[in-house]
From TrEMBL:
Residues 28-78 have a biased composition (Basic and acidic residues). Coiled coil: none annotated. This is Stress-induced protein. Pfam families: KGG (PF10685). Residues 1-78 are annotated as: Disordered. InterPro entries: Stress-induced_KGG_rpt (IPR019626), Stress/Virulence-Domain (IPR052590).
Length: 78
């Protein structure tokens, strides 16, 4: 089987990926085919994403731990 680990878009540097994706987005807007979300569509997408991520209990637990650490950083100085 051929080694494909250094091939394709996914293997590129993140900054290079963003640059290429940005060019595609700009071209779509210039062409008039880009989708622009309404506030209602954005609200619905955010709700769905929140529901999905909150189902991962381990991930949510990690978020809570990090938030707790950050909220207590200056507490000992008082």
């Amino acid at each position: 089987m051929a080694d494909t680990s250094k091939r394709g878009f996914a293997s590129m540097d993140e900054d290079k990926q963003r640059e290429i994706a940005s060019l595609g987005g700009q071209a779509a807007h210039e062409k008039g085919t880009a989708h622009e979300f309404t506030s209602e569509e954005a609200k619905e997408a955010g709700r769905k994403g929140g529901e999905t991520v909150s189902q991962d209990r381990e991930h949510m637990s990690e978020i809570g731990r990090e938030g707790g650490k950050n909220s207590h950083k200056g507490a000992k100085d008082e």
